Amino acid sequence: MCGISAYIGNNNAVDFLIQGLSKLEYRGYDSAGITILNHENQFVTTKKQGKLVNLMEALKESKQVGYMGIGHTRWATHGVPCDENSHPHCNKNNTISLVHNGIIENYSILKEELIKDGYEFLSMTDSEVIVHLLDKYDNGNMLETINHVIPKLEGSYALCIMVASDKDCMYVVKKDSPIVLACDANASYVASDIPAILDYSKNVYFMDDYQIARVEKGKITFYDLEQNIIIKEPTFIAYDNQTAQMDGYESFMLKEIYEQPFALQETLRGRIVENKIFFKELKDLDKKVKEFQRVYIVGCGTAYHAGLSIVDIMEKDLQIPVSCTVASEFRYNDPIINQHTLAIFISQSGETADTLAALKLAKSKGATTLSIVNVLSSSIARTSDYTTYTCANLEIAVASTKAYTTQIATLLLLSKYMYQEKTNQLIDNQLLTELQEIPTILKTVIKDSDIFKNYAKKVIQYHYAFFLGRGLDFPTAMEGALKLKEISYIHASSYIAGELKHGSIALIEKTSPVIALALQPNIIKKTISNIQETIARGGDVILITTKPNKVEGTYATYYLPEVHPSLMPIVAAIPMQFIAYHASKLKGYDVDKPRNLAKSVTVE
Ligand code: AGP
After folding, report:
1. Which of 162, 316, 342, 550 is the 20 to 30 Å CA partner of 22?
2. pTM score, two decimals?
3. Where does a domain end: 422, 446, 470?
4. Which 3 state secondary structure label does DSSP give 405?
5. Quick check: 222 and 229 in contact, CB under 8 A?
6. Is the residue at 603 inside a domain?
7. Ligand 1 mean position, distance from CA 477 (Å)
8. Which of 75, 331, 348 to mutate to test the pocket of ligand 1 (most atoms within 8 A of CB)?
9. Do 429 and 542 fall into the same domain?
């Protein structure tokens, strides 16, 4: 994971580096650091454990100035978060400095060899081996040296390298980790992601794997591993940076929960016209639909849960097998893929390494690939055959909220769209009408934040919580448990309500907090029986259902407005999000930046 920003130009590099890192902090906030080539031609490195603000404080005192620099915000993979393990890493003579995003999988073998050669390691990171390898093979021509070292590295990397002997340029090389570059007459800019550059340039270069860039002030030259020059055209980025403001909310997560009605309204905009669904950006997909013989849906975390909530619906709509898998499993499961396969990838960031790798695998095996992404021009969006965007806008909080509900809405629209194109039949009018009413319905549920806060007060008294559901309620239960775990650090498990009696019910004790969802009419009686079994064992059940369902002996019952069963996962997401949000706040945690996590997971 991690974020890289780098600058060479007429202004003080520190300013660009810090603004870049602040836009990239979503990639990790275990530590941050920069190296500047100062006016005495020396590398000065400042790095601090913790959030970017700690580095900014340190820089305020030391007042660094230089026209070239590299910066990094870290999500720890190898070695605990501490100053020593922070990037940049330098060689012993302080003549090479680099930042790395990715994982060097064979680092321990390389490290052993380097130690035998007399190299001393100051950190526990995998990244430090690269700087010593560059030092070891340095022949005075860094382009050649990089070419020599790259084949020795296994894993993923985006690297930005400065060499004291080459003070008018820096080098960038990548494999399986994103990096973007841009330049104007006064400077060149490098970053892990477009927003870090966008305020400076809208013409951005994307690099392919195993390409090297020599970055000078106002000039970038691209090479392949044989040192042939590659001519690249920049891509014009047709959008501006959205400013992430809390707008008076006490956290981004709270703001993003409240933004869901609008996000859904935007996601639905223009999609439904007189009972027909339109996906103009999906070009000729309508003609291909009849050829598909199976569908894979792939995502991670919350995106995976969104995928799960459409499997049964899409299977019925298309009358072909549909399955949903987490990306880290899909890519190593040798999935059966051919030219009749549609593979759908869901990702808020569009940069999740596992999802991107799964997409590349599906593509290489001949599948038609379609991605549902929130971040414009992200790697997953650019790599897929077809891309459609959720219109959730910037999602800052690590805990995904509005991306999730807009993903479910998009998946539902997509499933119905493919049904429409495959069968030439009209879609259930009732479903489409209610889908368009969802933004208004969400507003009424969001108003009940205080009720959900009371449930959170119960939940935080325990170290664990149960989430139960059947059918389409089960992905919602999984999402509720994930939300609670990631921001309140309470262990939460989701169970298929009907499975509980086959073992897990043994865990229920007197007053155990159980959040039970009973929202699917076709199975509601069965779900209620399972809930009663839980109450009989002493569990305190917070029941989320629709009127007039009733269960004797619950701790509390919350009635959601009744909507079409396929839409229930969207509506039921709100109580899940609020319970987790309030639990985290009541425990005094940083809701937006929970421990050990980052918004975008760009390593395997
Ligand atoms: C959700 O709250 C998580 N922070 C996480 O599970 C996330 O959904 C997952 O990492 C996938 O991210 P993506 O949608 O950006 O691919």
Report:
1. 162
2. 0.89
3. 446
4. helix
5. yes
6. no
7. 16
8. 348
9. no
Active site (annotated) includes residue 2: yes
Is 602 among the domain residues?
A: no
Ligand 1 midpoint to CA 292 (Å): 28
Q: Is residue 429 part of a domain?
A: yes
Range of the domain at 266: 247-446
Q: From residue 383, how far is each of 22, 210, 387 by CA, in Å? A: 26, 17, 9
Asked if residue 604 is part of any domain, the answer here is no
Ligand 1 pocket mutation pick from 252, 253, 300 by most atoms within 8 angstroms of CB? 300
Distance CA 135, CA 142 (A): 10
161 with 222, same domain: the answer is yes
Tell me the CATH number at 423: 3.40.50.10490
The pLDDT tens digits of the residues spanning 126-153 come to 999 999 999 999 999 999 999 999 999 9
Instruction: For tokens 């569009």, name the residue.
Output: 350
Residues with CB under 6 A from ligand 1: 300-303, 347-349, 352, 355, 398-400, 486, 600-601
- Reported as a pLDDT band with limits 50, 70 and 90, residue 244 is low
CA–centroid distance, 163 to ligand 1, in Å, is 36
- Exactly one of 483, 585, 593, 599 is catalytic; which is it? 599
Task: Tell me whether residue 324 is one of the annotated catalytic residues.
Answer: no
B/e letters for 515-540, b = 16+ CB within 10 Å, e = fewer, are: bbbbbbeebbeebbebbeebbeeebb
What total number of domains does the chain contain? 3
Pair 463, 434 in one domain: no
Last residue of a domain, one of 429, 446, 463: 446
What single string gives the DSSP state of each residue in 15-77?
HHHHHHHHHHGGG--SEEEEEEE-TTS-EEEEEEESSHHHHHHHHHHH----SEEEEEEE--S
Q: Are residues 239 and 299 in the same domain?
A: no
Per cent of the chain over pLDDT 70 is: 100
Average pLDDT over residues 333-350: 96
Name the residue of 309, 330, 349, 407 whose CB sits within 8 Å of the most ligand 1 atoms, as the mutation to test its pocket.
349
Q: Ligand 1 centroid to 92 CA: how many Å?
A: 38
Question: Do residues 437 and 472 both lie within one domain?
Answer: no
